[in-house]
Amino acid sequence: MTGPSATFGFRDVDASEKAGLVRGVFDRVARRYDLMNDLMSGGVHRLWKDAVAARLNPQPGETILDVAGGTGDMARRFARMARRAQERRGGPDARVFVIDYNAEMIAAGRERGFEPEMAWAVGDAQRLPLPDACADAYVISFGIRNVTDISAALREARRVLKPGGRFLCLEFSRPTTEALRKLYDAYSFKVIPEIGARVAGDRDSYQYLVESIRRFPDQRRFAAMMGEAGFSRAGFTNYTGGVAALHTGWAI
Ligand code: SAM
């Protein structure tokens, strides 16, 4: 390695290589991405995502960013919830932007259909194509562990949020008990790559996804990184015993 290093699953790679490697993974999984999420999690990822949307509580007139938004699974929820609130109370339309650096994921999402409040853009979480203080909320779901420089992405989230804007990050995390950790390790290292091989014909991409979860900072460390990036009241809520966690904070 010649430059600074980054993790790619359990491998250490040159930081300049990571984005291309991750993009390759999502190019390969894009067409089967939503189906695979349902199969791998037994549908539980939908409950986690619903819980995040309820916590965000999207409102009419808000500008909401779904960064590393992939096929727009979160953004659809936000757009529908904001519209329901608008039907009850009136107000301007919400705007929900799906931003992802992988055009294949965006194409797969657009084919699935979308809501009128949604717009799509190709962009990197570390250098968002957006002005300062333009968003009421920034959400990143199962995306940040794939980013080469997580601290840079957090600072960028802080930059684009208005003062008082909300930051929400849903990510796989660290199970809170040893028993659950063992069970989860066995499932993720034995079963998930096998499902990837059989359903998507791609064991390696799913092996990367599982390994990248293990390399991601645990709940407390990630909350500390949010504080270092300038978020106030950084905290987290564990889902399913810490298999996933929602981190929240406020831009000040
Ligand atoms: N947020 C969606 C969801 O919850 O279903 C998609 C999550 S998918 C596991 C991770 C996404 O992060 C991929 O679509 C990938 O292209 C995107 N991604 C990875 N690194 C990125 C970066 N630096 N900037 C923007 N998107 C990125």
Q: CATH homologous superfamily? A: Vaccinia Virus protein VP39
Strand content: 15-25%
How many domains would you count in the coordinates? Answer: 1
Strand line-up in the sheet with most strands: 5-4-3-6-7-9-8
- Ligand list: S-adenosylmethionine
Topology as a string of helices (H) and strands (E): EEHHHEHEHEEHEHHHEE
CATH topology, by name, is Rossmann fold
Structural class: alpha/beta
N- to C-terminal separation? 39 Å
How is the topology of this model organized?
Layout: E1 5-8, E2 11-14, H1 15-29, H2 33-41, H3 44-56, E3 63-67, H4 73-89, E4 95-100, H5 103-112, E5 118-122, E6 135-141, H6 150-160, E7 161-172, H7 178-199, H8 203-215, H9 219-228, E8 231-239, E9 244-251
Helix pairs in contact: 3-4, 7-8
Bound molecules: S-adenosylmethionine.
Question: What this model shows, in words?
Answer:
The chain is an alpha/beta fold. It has one domain: 3-Layer(aba) Sandwich (Rossmann fold), CATH 3.40.50.150. 48% of the residues lie in helices and 24% in strands. The strands form two sheets. A seven-stranded mixed sheet has the order 5-4-3-6-7-9-8, sandwiched between helices. A two-stranded antiparallel sheet has the order 1-2. α3 (44-56) crosses α4 and α7 (178-199) packs antiparallel against α8. The mean pLDDT is 94. S-adenosylmethionine binds at residues 22, 26, 68-70, 73-74, 100-102, 105, 124-126, 141-143, 146-147.
Please summarize what this structure is.
The chain is of the alpha/beta class. The protein is built from nine helices and nine strands. The site of S-adenosylmethionine has 19 residues, from helix 1 and helix 4.
